[in-house]
Design goal:
Radius of gyration: 16 Å
CATH class: Alpha Beta
Distance between the termini: 42 Å
Strand content: 35-45%
CATH superfamily: Restriction endonuclease-like alpha-beta roll domain
CATH architecture: Roll
Structural class: alpha/beta
Low-confidence stretches: none
Helix content: 25-40%
Order of helices and strands: EEHEEEHEHEHEEEE
CATH topology: Restriction endonuclease-like alpha-beta roll fold
Largest sheet: 6 strands, mixed
Number of domains: 1
Number of strands: 11
Strand order of the largest sheet: 3-4-5-6-7-11
Shape: globular
Length: 178
């Protein structure tokens, strides 16, 4: 019998001073059985950094044709494709070809550094791609905030995000690679 996704509920309050976006989102997050708390919380952070009424979680890990998050226009065109981790060049090429803007949030410490060293020259040719790195310690700290029913407050200013909940707070600084 296949394992089922674990459902998490998140009341996400976003105050993004950089984009002047102030909104509350009630999110239902399906965590795939193979997904860690860290990866799930990085998905939530990606949502906070790019939040809009049209941004949504996808089937993610269970589907190769979809990113972790995307924003679609009313005519069903992909405006924003957000992936996490260290995808291969073929997947990144597909993302850049299908979406107006593609974002990759890389995490994992030394493995993310090695991945970047191997792929940076190839990735330079994609004009609509942004690549960010989340320091390993920040990812681990984010994982400590995971709860089946979360209330998160995210304040974003000058590219920094302060994530707060009853379980504590974490300062997030994405490092721009490209």
């Amino acid at each position: 019998m296949a394992l089922k996704a674990t459902i998490f509920k998140c009341d996400l309050q976003i105050a993004d001073m950089d984009r002047h976006y102030y909104q509350n989102h009630l999110l239902t997050i399906a965590r795939h059985p193979s997904e860690t708390d860290e990866r799930m919380m990085i998905r939530v952070m990606a949502f906070a950094f790019y939040a809009s009424e049209q941004l949504s979680f996808t089937k993610g890990l269970s589907t190769d044709d979809e990113p972790d998050l995307w924003q679609k226009s009313l005519s069903d065109e992909i405006e924003l494709w957000i992936d996490l981790g260290q995808p291969d060049e073929k997947r990144i090429r597909k993302a850049c070809g299908r979406a107006k803007q593609a974002v990759l949030i890389n995490y994992g410490g030394r493995t993310s550094d090695s991945w970047w060293q191997q792929n940076q020259n190839t990735l330079k040719r994609f004009n609509n791609l942004s690549v960010f790195d989340l320091p390993e310690q920040q990812g681990k700290e984010l994982a400590t905030l995971a709860d089946r029913s979360m209330q998160l407050s995210v304040t974003i200013q000058d590219g920094h995000a302060l994530v707060s909940s009853d379980a504590g707070s974490v300062d997030i600084q994405l490092k721009k690679r490209k």
